[in-house]
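Could someone model zinc ion with this protein?
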Amino acid sequence: MEKIAEKLIRYAKIDTMSDEHSSTYPSTAKQLNLAKVLKAELDKMHIESYIDEYGLVYAKLDGDDSKEKIGLIAHMDTSPSLQGGNFEPRIINNYDGKDIILNDTYTLSVNDFPSLKSKKGKTLIVTDGEHLLGGDDKAGISIIMSVLEYFVSHPEIKHHPIRVCFTPDEEIGAGADHFSTEKMDADFAYTIDGGSEEEISYENFNASAAHVEIEGVGIHPGDAKGKMVNAALLAIEFNNLLPSLQIPSLTEGYEGFIHLDHIDGDVEKAVLDYIIRDHDYSKLKEKERQLELAAETIQKRYPHGKVSLTIKEQYLNMKQCFDKDFSPIEKLVKAHENVNVPYKFIAIRGGTDGARISYMGLPCPNVGTGDYACHGRYEHVVVEEMEDMCKVLINLLSL
Ligand SMILES: [Zn+2]
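Reply:
Sure, complex below.
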């Protein structure tokens, strides 16, 4: 069997950066290069698979038909935040726990990334300082491919029927756009995507977006008394009516926020865009109400101006999907315990494809991969944690 570190490095060298400004699907054709590599490897293992018309790779490995069909999902694209692919990732054996010089300009420092302290003695894969590693989520892909390889090379080990899907465009929020629960054909699934090996997530934010448009009344400033309504000033006033402590820079854990994402304006017209987030759905609705109240208040104060507010729900907390049946989480916890890999529950402060897929009817919690500091040049993967996650999944899937 190919070592998991070699697998990751091989996948990391393939440029699969997605593009949020593209209007095609997948957003970049180069993501299909990895899809084809994966398909060829699955063929070699005699695992049934295909790339569908949207570039998603589906695969299935038969197991005991009387048992639940378990899905594994990872994404093929890497973040547009920094170029990935076409570089040589570096392996650091027996890491000494000290700063890692990536190149003449950049150093991966223990001060900035204190979790490095606990990785002493481990095997790390790091970047050349100029690229992102793409362990998010090629570590997830490497784990899934290694698990499949294990079962194929150990036919004597009985296991659940396994279903796999590799998706494009997760990093631009479109990974689940063309995901099909029918094609996946699983009873429940796990997204293997990023973070420490300990992390199990089945909670994420509920999310809305608000768009505010303010129309003012423009007039020569010299003659403006009693007539001008300055839309830009109304925009500032609008924002000042919102709870000032509920912003991203002052919140953490289960604290939600209202985030001013964009503001633009002059006398005639101003626009504000917000994102609203809370793990608790009723608290999300309260925050939306704050924006409605602010709009009503400004409208009342300035009857000659015009304030319009539209709020759109974006995604929901997948926790509700596990209220009826918590067993996918229980099975995962049991597998962690069986192979002695620690675990902790993390409430995601964002959304995931797993959340969207959960709402399509396929419960899909998120598990870690051993990938750290993703989306930039300091990204690094701990090889032993990828190996641990293989053990966890093999235990979970075995009968
Ligand atoms: Zn990811």
